[in-house]
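FAQ

Q: What does a record look like?
A: Structure on top, sequence underneath. For example:
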C-alpha cells in the first residue's frame, strides 16, 4: 500500500475535469509543494465530487470519488487556506459524515 503520513484538505473548489498535471499544479499553488507521503484532497463547488492527489515518494497518484446523493462535509471556502486531517477524519469525510466532529476535535475538555 501507499504510505501516507499527512493528509491535507484544500478549502477552495477545484475543477473536477482536471487531470494529474493540473491537480499537481494546484497542489503546488495551494500548499507550496507536493511533499512525499502526503495526500491532498480537493472538492468541486457543489462538494459532491472529490479528487485526491498522493505523492508516494516516486510519483503521483490521482483518485476521484463521487457521491450519488448528498455532499461531502467540506469547510467553507477560505482563499489560500488548507486544513490538516487525521486518518479518522478522512474516513468520515470519504463516506460523507461530518468529519469535524471526529478525532482530536471531539475531545471533551469542560463540563
Amino acid at each position: 500500500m501507499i504510505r501516507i503520513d499527512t493528509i491535507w484538505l484544500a478549502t477552495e473548489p477545484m475543477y473536477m475535469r482536471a487531470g494529474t498535471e493540473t491537480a499537481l499544479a494546484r497542489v503546488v499553488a495551494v500548499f507550496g509543494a507536493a511533499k512525499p507521503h502526503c495526500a491532498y484532497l480537493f472538492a468541486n463547488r457543489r462538494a459532491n465530487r472529490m479528487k485526491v492527489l498522493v505523492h508516494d515518494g516516486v510519483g503521483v497518484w490521482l483518485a476521484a470519488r463521487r457521491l450519488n446523493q448528498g455532499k461531502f462535509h467540506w469547510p467553507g471556502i477560505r482563499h489560500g487556506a488548507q486544513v490538516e486531517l487525521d486518518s479518522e477524519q478522512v474516513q468520515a469525510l470519504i463516506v460523507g459524515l461530518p468529519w469535524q466532529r471526529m478525532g482530536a476535535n471531539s475531545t471533551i475538555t469542560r463540563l
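Q: Is there anything notable about this one?
A: The radius of gyration is 14 Å.
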